[in-house]
Amino acid sequence: MAHIPRKRFGQNFLQDQGVIASIINAVDPHKEDAIVEIGPGLAALTIPLMARVPQLHVVEIDRDIVAHLSARYTPEQLVIHNCDALMFDFGALAREIAPGGRIKLVGNLPYNISTPLLFHLASFGDVIYDMHFMLQKEVVDRMVAEPGTTDYGRLSIMLQYRYLMDHIIDVPPESFDPPPKVDSAVVRMVPYDVLPHPAKDEEHLRNLVQTAFAQRRKTIRNNLKGIANDEVLAAVGIEPSMRPENVSVAQYVALSNALKN
To answer: Where does S-adenosyl-L-methionine bind (predicted)?
Structure first.
């Protein structure tokens, strides 16, 4: 297929067979798995995934790619959902194709929508078994970052609150056509069956973390002025002079819960 990559869709097509094999091995598909691929593109991951499962579902926004895939594969092999992944109801699809079970998500995600898409997918954690995504390396570094590092922030906390994260491999630009201007990486995300640090109000936690990181160079005391005084911070093990990137996920949850009380 002679397809011109569309910049507005953030298209960079994976072509490195070694990287493709590493991703498929990490996903470890079994014939009983219900797998959904986001952004199949030119089918670099689609073809080896279809070889492992009886039927694969894909979510693709580009109508030219949809037409190509529809002409090449039967609906029994490949079910194509022509829509924007940011608006797609993965919960409804999971209930349809994996009743009583969970789906596995795979994708080389468009870098221009990766962060909002990750937050969109967070709302479907109860129907997702695991996720393997190719993303900009800078984003993956932030996703898996530990407290006390420069990459640790709102994205790290809100994803680690819900998922066990694992940085799988780094992928250089030459693995794609056209090569992106940045390095890439593959991350595995596994939703917790039981949250290790459950928040009483997740919306409150999200707002609290966002406020805490409004000005990274200021202390947690200054950023949360009027929200949490020194006594409340100390009660959950947070030194008021700490910077927001030094506060752990567990401490943010404990602070949110204390404020809700």
So the answer is: 12, 14, 39, 60, 84, 108
Go through the domains of the chain in sequence order and give each one's CATH number: 7-191 (3.40.50.150), 202-260 (1.10.8.100)
Mean pLDDT score across all residues of the chain:
93
Q: In whole angstroms, what is the distance from residue 11 CA to residue 26 CA?
A: 23
Does this model's pTM top 0.70? My answer is yes
39 is in an annotated binding site: yes
User: Is residue 132 scored above 70 in pLDDT?
Assistant: yes
H-helix segments, the chain:
17-27, 46-50, 63-72, 90-97, 114-122, 137-144, 154-160, 202-212, 220-223, 230-235, 249-260
What gap in Å lies between CA 175 and CA 170, rounded to an integer? 11
Q: Other C-beta atoms within 10 Å of 122: how many?
A: 18
Strand ranges of the sheet holding 184-191, from the earlier edge strand across to the other edge: 78-82, 56-60, 34-38, 103-108, 128-136, 184-191, 163-171
Range scoring the smallest mean pLDDT among 111-120, 147-156, 206-215: 111-120
User: Residue 226 CB: number of other CB atoms within 10 A?
Assistant: 6
Residue 246 marked in a binding site: no
14 a known binding residue?
Answer: yes
226 is in an annotated binding site: no
Q: Are 48 and 22 in contact (CB under 8 A)?
A: no
CA end-to-end span of the chain? 59
193 is in an annotated binding site: no
pLDDT digits (tens, 9 = 90+) for 193-246: 999 999 999 999 999 999 999 999 999 999 999 999 999 999 999 999 999 999
Indicate the pLDDT class of residue 9, thresholds 50, 70 and 90: very low
